[in-house]
């Protein structure tokens, strides 16, 4: 890059040792290392923010809804048996699918934005990275900012 050879590096090292002294040289090296690390972190954060904003208008992939599993006579017989034994089931009005989490808001652990559950961005958050929130105030307390697409809000009551 700068075409600096071994001799030039030795001269620079000797000059730095003479100017700063042997006591200050390690401290100077640590300070420069911290500054470079902070610069790299800030540039990575800026790059991911720009990439996220550039992809905000991309169309969402169209997902084909999967058909419900076929209902067989044995499944109906099992449901009737479970209801007769007093267990809760689909016959009592409970959903046959596992109950979804009731929190109306969702955020990603490594992000600053939180969304309504029906926002298109929630489908892009991996399940393991999701944080579910009950209220907008809870999200703001944890440092999240409202999504500019869905603009989550709570009715005042």
Physical arrangement of strands within the biggest beta sheet: 3-1-2-4
CATH architecture of the largest domain, by name, is 3-Layer(aba) Sandwich
Strand content: 5-15%
**Biggest β-sheet, characterized?**
4 strands, mixed
Structural class: alpha+beta
For the record, the CATH class of the largest domain is Alpha Beta
Radius of gyration: 29 Å
Report how far apart the termini are: 64 Å
Q: SSE string, helix = H, strand = E?
A: HHEEEHE
Query: Count of DSSP E strands?
Result: 4
Query: What's the CATH topology name of the largest domain?
Result: DNA Methylphosphotriester Repair Domain
How many domains, as an integer? 2
* Oligomer kind: single chain
Topology at a glance:
Layout (H helix, E strand, L loop, with lengths): L5 H49 L18 H12 L20 E4 L4 E4 L13 E4 L2 H6 L3 E2 L11
Parallel strand pairs: 2-4
Antiparallel strand pairs: 1-2, 1-3
Can you offer a commentary on this structure?
The chain is an alpha+beta fold and 157 residues long. It has two domains: 1-56, Single alpha-helices involved in coiled-coils or other helix-helix interfaces; 99-157, DNA Methylphosphotriester Repair Domain (3-Layer(aba) Sandwich), CATH 3.40.10. Helices cover 43% and strands 9% of the residues. The chain has three helices and four strands. The chain has helices at 6-54, 73-84, 136-141; strands spanning 105-108, 113-116, 130-133, 145-146. It has a four-stranded mixed sheet. The chain is elongated, with a radius of gyration of 29 Å. Mean pLDDT is 75; it is low at 80-84 and 87-99.
């Amino acid at each position: 890059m700068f075409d600096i050879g071994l001799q030039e590096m030795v001269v620079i090292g000797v000059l730095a040792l003479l100017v700063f002294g042997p006591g200050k040289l390690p401290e100077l090296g640590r300070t420069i290392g911290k500054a470079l690390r902070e610069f790299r972190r800030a540039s990575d954060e800026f790059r991911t923010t720009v990439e996220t904003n550039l992809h905000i208008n991309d169309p969402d992939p169209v997902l084909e809804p999967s058909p419900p599993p076929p209902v067989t006579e044995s499944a109906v017989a099992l449901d009737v048996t479970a209801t007769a034994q007093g267990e809760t089931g689909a016959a009592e009005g409970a959903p046959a699918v596992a109950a979804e989490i009731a929190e109306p808001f969702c955020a990603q652990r490594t992000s600053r934005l939180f969304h309504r559950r029906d926002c298109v961005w929630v489908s892009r958050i991996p399940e393991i990275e999701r944080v579910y929130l009950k209220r907008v105030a809870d999200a703001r307390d944890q440092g999240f900012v409202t999504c500019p697409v869905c603009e989550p809000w709570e009715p005042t009551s």
